[in-house]
Specification:
Number of strands of chain A: 3
Order of helices and strands of chain A: HEHHEEHHHHHHHH
Protein name (chains A, B): DNA-binding GntR family transcriptional regulator
CATH architecture of the largest domain in chain A: Up-down Bundle
Pfam families (chains A, B): FCD (PF07729), GntR (PF00392)
Low-confidence stretches of chain A: 217-222
GO molecular function (chains A, B): DNA binding; DNA-binding transcription factor activity
Helix content of chain A: over 70%
Structural class of chain A: mainly alpha
Number of domains of chain A: 2
Organism (chains A, B): Roseococcus suduntuyensis
Largest interface: A-B, 26 and 26 residues
Keywords (chains A, B): DNA-binding, Transcription, Transcription regulation
CATH class of the largest domain in chain A: Mainly Alpha
Oligomer: homodimer
Strand content of chain A: under 5%
Number of helices of chain A: 11
DNA sequence: GGATGACACATTGCATACAATGTCGGTATC
DNA sequence: GATACCGACATTGTATGCAATGTGTCATCC
């Protein structure tokens, strides 16, 4: 088994992602420790790490509170993603490697096979394939810090759940953009790949903000 | 007095910046705790935070090791800074506020007064003023995450010491670029401000890499 | 009735003891 | 002589107890 700290970190992150903890709610160390079957020490370290990664906020002498996302937060995160994901894919296009290309291709195919079925299970698969695709780019880029930063920006709750807000046309476009990026990288055209990535992230931003405006803000909170 | 954790964090960060710990050296929890007069618990938390911020690397079951910088690391960091500092200053130029402008102006004047004397004390002042100037921009930008990321990218050792590598002309140009950014922000011209910032950071990158190539790589390590 | 202070409680901060893990040296074996 | 194994030591990982801090309530005073 992994270490208690790692287990606490992963469990808490999953719960923050799936909405177990309402935004703003107070996460008490002792309570979490009891639930996870470990002591407060690894829980404390997990909370500190989740704080650094933006999942929650630790206030000195008061404890951890599940993060409350504002529209401005979401806009900032999508903008930073557009900058950094484009930066990463431009590097990837400069020095592509076969393993990474295979991973990207596999992610594309996985998503495309699931696409026709528009149910929730299909969306799970597509969402997972999406993460794989982007992660493959981060790794191929060889930019370790950029990758670390993106990991903390792209993982938080609303990013993972955003796929539910896409309509069929939006999903189709998203998958097509993945294919286009793959083509651009194989062609070694960094400017092309970067431009598609910027469009890709901005499209996601638009879908998300549109969903928020149309009263599905609950999805943000969750 | 601040908390033990905060004190440990600040002390260790300062030591990592001033070269007390050689790159790659093993930082033992108990030893640090004894030196700082606190227990291992706050030291552990400080080490974890320094790991997240890129000052050192914590290997599970093995402990913390002072980070060893490669040329590729430095190039990546300067490139990310160029992206993110420009992003921040573009936001700042869109919505400038008087307090931030005053802080930037004060930082410019502080550096300019110290500039003619080219000794080490003057460089200290200029380096400090530089940090103040950039921090003022980050705060004015209103981009909280961008600011957090930049703080961890811009602080590490070689950033703080890079001023020693500038010649008089380079320093002069750096100060002029600060003034130009201030002018651009006051004019509300985000594109202008962003462009100057990109040039500013890339100039710093060139100076640094030049120093490394010319055998002053020791400065990197320190 | 509203404001203020003190006290009790809940919770986090820190210290310390013990357990688990990794490293390094020595020894036996091939 | 090289290598694999074993065990002692050093170090980190985790649990737990106590101290410090913050919060909410209740009584008291204005």
């Amino acid at each position: 088994m992994a270490t208690a700290r790692e287990q606490a970190y992963l469990t808490l992150r999953r719960r923050l992602a799936d909405g177990t903890y309402a935004p703003g709610s107070h996460l008490r160390e002792e309570e979490l420790a009891a639930q996870l079957g470990v002591s407060r020490t690894p829980v404390r370290e997990a909370l500190r790490r989740l704080d650094a990664e933006g999942w929650l906020r630790v206030v000195p002498n008061q404890g951890a509170f599940a993060f409350e996302w504002s529209v401005a937060d979401i806009e900032e995160i999508f903008d930073l993603r557009a900058l950094l994901e484009a930066h990463a894919v431009e590097h990837a296009a400069t020095a592509p490697d076969q393993r990474g290309l295979d991973a990207m291709k596999a992610a594309c195919e996985l998503a495309e096979r699931a696409f026709p079925g528009g149910d929730l299970a299909a969306l799970e698969v597509i969402s997972d394939a999406n993460v794989r695709f982007h992660r493959a780019i981060w790794e191929m880029s060889g930019q370790a810090r950029c990758r670390t930063i993106l990991q903390s920006l792209a993982m938080p709750p609303m990013m993972l759940r955003n796929f539910r807000n896409f309509d069929a046309a939006g999903l189709r476009r998203s998958l097509d953009q993945h294919r286009e990026m793959l083509t651009a990288i194989i062609a070694g055209n960094a400017a092309w790949a970067g431009a598609v990535m910027r469009a890709h992230v901005q499209a996601g931003r638009a879908v998300f903000l549109n969903a928020v405006v149309h009263g599905e803000a609950a999805a943000v909170a969750a």
